[in-house]
Write a structure and sequence with these properties.
globular; two-stranded antiparallel ribbon; single chain; 15 helices
Length: 425
């Protein structure tokens, strides 16, 4: 399984400078539609949109997400026939009925291709956009998220069965049903992207696809096994929870070309950006530690206080594990993270990228990947035109779409069928 995570015009800070893009591409629905067509040409599974309900990037350095996710996905749906449509929407700053209605509508008009990526939002500065002085604490956000997902699932089921739901919880009381007809796949899929302990529990209990952030093979295997075990413990078939780590790709026809492309991009990164991002990921001040020594033992071994640390616990854990497993100095660790990002990065030829994907899949660390090209459209085009054919020759990827719906392609039954099959097994 391969999704493409469309981070506007690319994950690198210089992506907007590409000669293949016009200055307003990041607010042009036709640009996103063309990316969707390229992905569909490569029979990729889904077009994935991250989101944060506020400014995500410093506009002095890089354009960020400007259009609301389902607006973009509607444009992609109209321009394509098969590719899945995954939108990220926060449980902290949305309402279950409205969100369920929005995603179910997209699912219906796209012919059963929609999924919702569940996040709780950890960026403190977003709170002010909603009249709050601070975010709810992490525990409250995850309790709300778990209840929110239950409520949305009940509402989607109400549209499919024609039976009104009555939901009473700590955060929500809902009575009624959605007016949207059931889609070709019955109801949308759930994706989950949190890597904290609470996030992994939520993923194993309810998600169909997990967007993880593991940086090493061993960490990937451990995460894979943990989430699958949570699914089993929750009475689900673990095969119905697909683990897709993020993979940043910088591809050249040869490794040397890829490295030159990566170095050129790094030279355009604003001074201090990588260090600031890295500091936020770990919750430490880089100025207070030796860059040419390993991470301090207090950082590696010491538990972080969730009430004080506001960043992603999943990103923090994956970075610390990589540093400890490979005994990296802080400087080398920063280099491995490619500008402070918390996802694994590969710089190489199409064969090397295909090798990585195959190795993780065969090792039981992943069911596929969420691809994060350095820039669009050429970073995606080289994957589609040069990496996908290698994967096909190796028997690792499809030649054509096997099913018209996202649920059918992922092999995910409707909720009651999943539970019934698990109990019967």
């Amino acid at each position: 399984m391969l999704n493409v995570n469309v981070l506007d015009v690319g994950i690198t800070h210089d992506a907007w400078r590409s000669a293949d893009l016009h200055p307003l591409a990041f607010v042009d629905t036709e640009y996103f539609a063309e990316v969707g067509r390229i992905a569909e040409r490569g029979t990729l599974d889904a077009f994935f949109l991250a989101d944060g309900p506020g400014l995500r990037e410093d506009p002095r350095h890089k354009p960020g997400r400007a259009l609301e996710p389902t607006t973009i996905l509607g444009a992609v749906a109209a321009a394509t026939d098969n590719i899945g449509l995954i939108g990220t929407l926060s449980t902290t700053f949305n309402d279950p009925w409205e969100l369920a209605y929005r995603i179910a509508s997209l699912d219906y008009v796209s012919g059963g291709r929609a999924a919702w990526n569940v996040v709780t939002t950890y960026a403190e500065d977003i709170a002010g956009n909603f009249g709050l002085t601070e975010l709810p604490d992490r525990n409250t956000r995850y309790r709300r998220a778990a209840e929110f997902v239950d409520a949305v699932n009940d509402l989607w089921a109400s549209a499919r069965t024609g039976t009104a739901t009555r939901f009473d919880g700590e955060f929500f009381t809902i009575a009624g049903q959605l007016p949207v007809p059931p889609s070709a796949q019955g109801q949308p899929l759930l994706v989950q992207a949190g890597g904290s302990p609470a996030g992994r529990e939520l993923a194993g209990r309810q998600a169909h696809t997990v967007f993880s952030a593991e940086l090493s093979l061993q960490a990937g295997i451990a995460h894979y096994q943990h989430v699958k075990s949570v699914a089993t413990r929750s009475g689900r078939n673990p095969e119905h929870v697909r683990i897709l780590p993020g993979l940043i790709t910088v591809i050249g026809s040869t490794e040397a070309q890829a490295r030159a492309r990566d170095e050129e991009s790094a030279s355009q990164t604003p001074s201090g950006h990588a260090a600031a991002r890295f500091s936020a990921t770990l919750g430490i001040d880089l100025n207070s530690i030796d860059l040419d020594a390993p991470l301090p033992k207090s950082v590696i071994d010491g538990p972080v206080d969730p009430s004080l640390f506001t960043g992603s616990l999943g990103f923090r854990e994956s970075v610390i594990r990589l540093a400890a497993d490979e005994q990296l100095t802080v400087r080398r660790l920063l280099g491995r993270l490619g500008g402070g990002f918390g996802h694994r990065k590969i710089v190489g030829s199409p064969e090397q990228v295909a090798d990585t994907i195959g190795h993780w899949w065969n090792s039981g660390a992943a069911d596929g990947f969420n691809l994060m090209p350095d820039r669009f459209p050429d970073g995606l085009e080289i994957f589609v035109d040069e990496v996908v054919p290698i994967l096909r020759r190796r028997g690792l990827f499809r030649h054509e779409y096997e099913a018209p719906t996202l649920r059918g392609r992922f092999g995910i039954p409707l909720p009651e069928a999943d539970t019934a099959a698990s109990l019967a097994g």
